[in-house]
Amino acid sequence: MTEAESDPVRERLEEFVGRPMGPPSVAPDPVNVPMIRHWVDALDDRNPVYLDEEAARNTRFGGLVAPPAMLQVWGMPRPKIEGIAERGGAPSDMRFENPISVLDEAGYVGTLATNSELEFVRYLRPGDRLTLSNEIESISNRKKTALGQGYFVTWVTTFRTTEGEVVGRQLFRILKFDPSTIDLSKLQVPR
Amino acid sequence: MTTTAPKPRSISVGDELPPFELNVTSTVIVAGAIASRDFMPAHHDPTFARAQGAPDVFMNILTTNGYVARYVTDWAGPEAMLTSIKIRLGAPAVPGKPLRFTGRVAGKREADGACALEIAVRAANDLGDHATGTVTLTLPLG
């Protein structure tokens, strides 16, 4: 702590830093062409290496590959639609203690994503099956931000095949803020 | 999809990527959210989004990453292999406010028969910068 005053909320969060956030999870589906097609159409991405087998065979990839930005998609959990709004959009109840629920309980109920850093070790191919593990990389001290007081929480998701090969990573940073501490006179976000 | 992918040897630091404007509609936002299995109501339910302080439904991060990737590969062509997409997130992408993508070659080196590029990318609308960051990729020297 650089601040002279103690911060019991931050002290409670320390136990999470450098540790796994929940158990590893298995992607609901293997990398597959129907989900790739759905994505390619939704984003109107006409790169032929995703769906045109013959064109893909004649590239460095030698066959179909998944769009790299879909890495996070493969790990998205199956949602429980009933009650999703009441859970603030969480796809299901988090069954394990984590820093986000600690911050929610302490009044830092606002969430703003600030950074995403995807790294691709290799492109995925239809049939790849993935597992995900999350680790809290860092939690900042309490900061004054344009959205009031809050904490930056950073975690890293490592994507592996079920054979254990690391195929990608994602660093994700969010600000958990207390909306009651927002200084509205300084807020630039249009209403 | 461009049919005129640049030749790696002709790419120079400072080259600008052709700009791209995405007409952001509710359909674009919802299509991306559902294709990424993201059922967070802020990405399809305007009432929920406004209750959270947003002006309307807004694009999810997975879709933003997808468009950033597409913007770069539309220019670099099908031989491009992205190695990273690192973005800082800012103003929301909302219906009725087109997103303007711009990019510039910020770095280039050649090694092991491939050309490694660093592209500085920005996606902005009338509210400000939606996403700014760097995409890295390799192209075979061929």
Written overview of the protein:
The complex is a heterodimer of chains A (191) and B (142). Chain A has 191 residues and is α+β, with helices and mostly antiparallel strands. Chain A has a domain at 1-27 and 96-182: Roll (Thiol Ester Dehydrase, Chain A), CATH 3.10.129.10. Helices cover 17% and strands 27% of the residues of chain A. Chain A has five helices and six strands. In chain A, strands 1, 2, 3, 4, 5 and 6 form a six-stranded antiparallel sheet that branches. The longest helix of chain A has 11 residues, at 33-43. Chain A starts with 7 loop residues before the first helix and ends in a 14-residue tail after the last strand. Chain B is of the alpha+beta class and 142 residues long. Chain B has one domain: Roll (Thiol Ester Dehydrase, Chain A), CATH 3.10.129. Chain B contains three helices and five strands. Chain B has a five-stranded antiparallel sheet with strand order 1-3-4-5-2, covered by helices on one side. The two termini of chain B are 21 Å apart. At the A-B interface, α2 and β2 of A face α1, α3 and β2 of B.
Low-confidence stretches of chain B: none
Instruction: Quickly name the level 1 CATH class of chain B.
Output: Alpha Beta
Strand order of the largest sheet of chain B: 1-3-4-5-2
Q: Measured on Cα atoms, how large is the radius of gyration of chain B?
A: 16 Å
Kindly name the structural category of chain B. Answer: alpha+beta
Written as H for each helix and E for each strand, in order along the chain, the element string of chain B is EHHHEEEE
Largest interface: A-B, 44 and 41 residues
Q: Mind telling me the CATH superfamily name of the domain at 1-27 and 96-182 in chain A?
A: Hotdog Thioesterase
Tell me what the CATH architecture of chain B is.
Roll
> Judging from the principal axes of the Cα atoms, what is the shape of chain A?
elongated
Taking Cα atoms only, what radius of gyration of chain A do you get, to the nearest Å? Answer: 20 Å
CATH topology of the domain at 1-27 and 96-182 in chain A: Thiol Ester Dehydrase, Chain A
Count of discrete alpha- or pi-helical segments spanning 4 or more residues of chain A: 5
Q: Name the CATH superfamily assignment of chain B.
A: Hotdog Thioesterase
